[in-house]
Each structure stands twice: as C-alpha cells, then as structure tokens.
Amino acid sequence: MRGSLLAIALLIGVVVAHAEPATAPEAIAIPGGRAGIGYDDLQYAPALKRILVPAGRTGTLALIDPATRKVTTIAGFSGAASYRGGHGQGTTSAAELTGFPGFVVATDRGATALRLVDTRSGKLVQSVTLAASPDYVRVVEQTGEVWVSEPGRKQLQVLRIDGKERPRLVPAAILPVPDGPESLVIDPVRGRAYSHTWKDQSYAIDLKTRTVVATWSNGCRGSRGMALDAARGFLFAGCAEGKVTVVRLATLEVVATAITGPDVDSIGYAAATGHLYVPAGGSAELWTFAVAQQGALSLLGKLPTAPDAHTVAFDPDSRSLFIGAPDHGAVLMFRDRF
Predict the structure, then answer these.
(1) Which end of the chain is less crowded, N or C, counting CB atoms within 10 A of the terminal residue's CB?
(2) What pTM value is reported for the model?
C-alpha cells in the first residue's frame, strides 16, 4: 500500500513539504472600499514599484507602495455606491505601459472603455471606447500594443500605442478566439499570448500574426487563472473546481497537478522564489507551491485569507504577496517566508 501511495504522488507530480506556521496578514485599507470591492486582477508594476489595485466599485485605481504601505488613488472611473458581489463594477484590470514611465492602462467595465492613466499627475489622459465589456488588459512590449480580452464577444481587442514621449492608444484589430477568452498572459520569449476556454482547454496566439497557433487540454474542468514561468517554459492553469495544473510548453503536456481549496480564479507565479501562489476563494486560503525543475509541485503551506479572495500579486523586492479581500475592501499583505 505504501508503494502504491508513493506511485500516485509521483504520477500527479505533487509532494507535500513541511510548512511554517501561518502568520496573520497586514490589512491595507483602500480608500472608499469599506462597503466592499470586487477585485479581479492585482498586478505588480516593476518600473513604478507599485501594486496596481483596480478598485472596482470605488471608481478609482489604487497604487500601493510595498515599502511604506502608502496608498495613492486615481479617480475618474465608473463607480457605484454599493457592492453587489462579484467583480463586474468599475475598473478591474490594469497594466503598466512599458517604455512610457508613469503611464498605466486600466479597464473600466461600467463605461466599456480602456483608460490611459498618468500616475505622475494622477489623472486620466485618454479614454477609448471598446468593442465590448473588458476583462483583462495586458501590454505587448515587442509589438507596441495593448491587448484587451472581451469574453462576452469571444474576442480580443488590440490597440496600437502611438507616440514617443506621450502615448496615445489607437484601436487596431479584433481577434476572434475560441470559447473564451478567460485570462490572458503574454510570453515575450516565445512571442505568444496564452488564454483559456471556460472549460478544459488553453490556446496560444502568435503575437505578430495574431492567429491561434496551438490548442491543448489543460487538465481543468473549469479553466480560470493563468500564470507563466517563461524561462523554464511552464504555463500554470487555475481550475475553478479547486486545482492547479502545470503544462510544459515545449510539448503542451500536463506534467503536474495539485488539489487546492475550491473556487480558484486568478493565480500568481514569482520567478524570484520559484513559487506558485493559488488563492482559493471558497476556502479563504492561499496555497503556496514550490515548482521543481521538471515542473513537479510541492505544497509549502496554506495561509488564511478572506472569503472570495481570489487574486494575488507579488512584489519581488520585499517578497510580499498582496491579495484583495472583497467584503471590506482591504488588501491583505503577506510575506513569503518559505
């Protein structure tokens, strides 16, 4: 029996490691968030050295300084007086505009728009009406473009970045995609973008030709979040049913699977630690895995978060994690001590 259990563990690529005791997070209040915020996509901006927090219902984009915990907010997005659950209100996704210091692009679901933000002046400097309600926004540095996922229309919208010192966004193309797109990751090493269907498949899009060039089974029943280890060629998939999988991009095969708490959505990966971070909103836990050289997952430990907390960002300087806690609009900060 013991040999059989070991074989099963090796087959799914999961080893449980000794974990340190859980530590309480630090709660960072987001101005105007006490009634609740539907967080969907927290990101680290390396040039700004800030955590980008699209603060949904509040009508603001918040920026957290990991070193001081200071929060700066930029207004001008659509908002709402009350939180109705989920993450469909206001701004829900943002990304730093590479090559243009201080500029950020952020979605606005309430206005079906993409906003260009100058964080130095604290103002919105351009608004582009989108073809459909936006989900994720990502910057493609090598082509000078911004890609926005629009799952309601099963498409991606591409905007060109014009200008040298002061950027301007210009709509450029619409890309039809399979049953999705759910999540969006840019791989500059391979010149591809990755996304999911809402069920059990992922696909790759060539950044230059803007065409789907590969499709594969990702091991999920309900595909949700996505993260990338570009250097080692691993793509991680979060599964709504409470699971995470590892796909080797060279062969498009699932090489590891790990069970987590239920209601997984966004996930995160840090090349600095080699750790995969999986918030499970249904169990209010953050699951941390070490990713081995061949892709196997070792569970390092679980930390308590908050109900429906399902998005995470990592600051490499402080080795800290930031997780949105919807009910009271705070952002929880943990240090990765593993």
Answers:
(1) N
(2) 0.92
